[in-house]
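Good day; I would like, with your permission, to put a structural problem before you. A protein sequence and the C-alpha cells that stand for its backbone fold form the material at issue. Thank you for your consideration; the sequence and its C-alpha cells are set out here:
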Amino acid sequence: MLKVAWTPAYAHPLPEGHRFPMDKYTLLPEQLLYEGTIQADSIFHPSPVNEKYILLTHDAHYWHRLKNLDLTPAEIRKTGFPLSPQLVHREITIAQGTVQAALYALEYGIAMNIAGGTHHAFTDRGEGFCLLNDIAIAANYLLYHHLATQVLVIDLDVHQGNGTAQIFRDNPAVFTFSMHGASNYPLHKEQSDLDVALPDFTDDRAYLQALNTHLPKIVDTVQPDFVFFQSGVDVLATDKLGKLSLSMFGCKERDRTVLSFCKENKIPVAVSMGGGYSQRIADIIEAHANTYRLAQEIYF
C-alpha cells in the first residue's frame, strides 16, 4: 500500500499573498482520493516530531528561538512567511511526516509526504518558505537508529537544495545531489556533493539526458541504501519562479526515471513534495499528482 503523510494547511487564515502556495496541500489529496490513486487508509496524519530529532540536525539556539517565536524581523522576512505558533507546529509536523514516510518506505519500498522538501532550511536559519529541513531530519533519524548507512538525497526542485547541502557538507554518510536552475534562487549556492546547474530554458530532452547521465553514476559510486527524493514541480515551463522549460510530460518522465531507478535497484525512497508555483493551480496539482500516480504504477 502507498502510504502518504498529509499535514493539513494552516488552521488560521494567511495574509493576502501567502495563501496561494498553501492551496495545493489541500487540493492534492482531494484530487488523489477523487481519482482513486490513493484510498483513505493510505493517508496518515503525523504528530509533531520529537525535539530530540530536530536537534540532531538544527542548532539548539536557532530551534529555541524559532519555537519561542523569537526570530528577528530580518530572519522572518527571509523565510517568506509571517511567524506564528501555527507555522512552527506545521513545520514540526511536516518533519515527522517525512520521518514516518521513511519508515514506511523501508517496509513498502516507497512512501510520500504531501508537504516537505524544505531544502532551504539550514542548520541555524530558515529561508525561502523553509524553517526546518524535513529531509535532513529524517535522514539523520535513519542514521541515528542504524536504519540506513548511506543516504542519497536526490533534489530535483528548480532551486538548489542549499540548506541540505550545508547541513551534510561534512557528513559522508549523506550524499547530496541537486539538479537545478543555474541562475535561479538562491543567488549564492552552497556546494552539494554533486551540483548540476542547468541553463535557463532547459527542455525535456536536455533535462532527462542530464538526469539519466548522472543518476546511475551516483548510485554506482555512492551505493546508497536509502533515497530521499525532493520532487518539486517548479521545473515546469509554466512556473512563475522557475526558469526551466519542462513540459508536463517531461516532469512526469523525470519522476518515472527516479522512481523506476530506485525500484529496480531495490533502494527504499521517501518522496517530499517540494515547490510548484505555476500560474494555474491545476497545473501544479496535475504535476504533483503524476508523482503519486507513478508511485502506484511502479510499486503497487
In short: The chain has a mean pLDDT of 94. The chain is about 45% helix and 15% strand. The beta strands are 3-6, 43-44, 110-114, 151-155, 174-181, 194-198, 226-230, 269-272.
